[in-house]
Amino acid sequence: MITISATKLRNNLFNYLEKVVDGETILIQRNKKEVAKLVPPKTSNWRDRVTITPKLLVDPDELIKPIVDIWQDYV
């Protein structure tokens, strides 16, 4: 984590933004008090957030079976 003053950030904004893109967290201070924090964005891939695997209510073979064959089983 990098700690900088707001003035230093203002003077070198694009350099610090590149560091954030590279994964660095930047703590911004004004009068030696923390006022903000720049952090890299979280991953936006929804597959990374899914924790439960969906379960099928039917046999996978029935999903590709012609509908006529399925109805014959019930008639």
Task: Note down, in words, how this protein is organized.
With 75 residues, this protein is of the alpha+beta class. The protein has a domain at 1-40: YefM-like domain (YefM-like fold, 3-Layer(aba) Sandwich), CATH 3.40.1620.10. 41% of the residues lie in helices and 20% in strands. It has helices at residues 6-11, 13-21, 46-49, 60-63, 67-74; strands at residues 2-5, 26-30, 33-38. It is rod-shaped.
- The quaternary organization reads as single chain
Largest sheet: 3 strands, mixed
Strand portion: 15-25%
Number of contiguous helices: 5
CATH class of the domain at 1-40: Alpha Beta
What's the name of the CATH homologous superfamily of the domain at 1-40?
A: YefM-like domain
Quickly describe the structure.
This protein is α+β, with helices and mostly antiparallel strands. The protein has helices at 6-11, 13-21, 46-49, 60-63, 67-74, and strands at residues 2-5, 26-30, 33-38.
For this entry, give a set of tags.
YefM-like fold, alpha+beta, single chain, 75 residues, 3-stranded mixed β-sheet, 5 helices
Please specify the SSE layout and strand pairing.
Blueprint: E1 2-5, H1 6-11, H2 13-21, E2 26-30, E3 33-38, H3 46-49, H4 60-63, H5 67-74
